[in-house]
Amino acid sequence: MDSLLKGKKYKLSNGDENKCNKSVIFVKPTDSIFKLIEEVTKNPGCSNPKIQFDEHGGVIIFHTDRGIQKFNFSLSDIGGKENEDSINLPNRNFECVEQNRNGSLESLGCMTIKMQIRAKEDSYENTRFKVTAAEKEQKQYW
């Protein structure tokens, strides 16, 4: 992945004219689903994940060598004119931008929805482990 250089100017194009027909969603993954996505993309034997939506969220289903793994998620509004709480929150836009191979930037569309993957027990265990390790390290310096 390329990075943007400080002080350099980049051309930003509006991208595909059909982007009005697309929804751009901000996805906040947990470590466990991120690792699983990496595993599935590297393993040609795994089938494509399935996603099911309901009124306020849904579930992502992975079929792997270890069986079926499900991750629940919630959906929420992250701003824009449709925001019910427009009195307390200003109208805001989050633009999804992609850097092309030639270095230019292309707008993929405006993000108005956030997908929050719900943590599973392994996420909590990892957090507890990190906190314990940080506490031990901090005690060494006191």
UniProtKB/TrEMBL annotation:
GO CC, one annotated term: transcription elongation factor complex
One Gene Ontology term of the molecular function aspect: cis-regulatory region sequence-specific DNA binding
Gene Ontology biological-process annotations: positive regulation of transcription elongation by RNA polymerase II; snRNA transcription by RNA polymerase II; transcription elongation by RNA polymerase II
Domain RNA polymerase II elongation factor ELL N-terminal: 8-140
One Pfam entry name: ELL
InterPro entries, A to Z: ELL/occludin, ELL_N
Signal peptide limits: none
Protein name from the UniProt record: RNA polymerase II elongation factor ELL N-terminal domain-containing protein
Lineage of source species: Eukaryota, Metazoa, Ecdysozoa, Arthropoda, Chelicerata
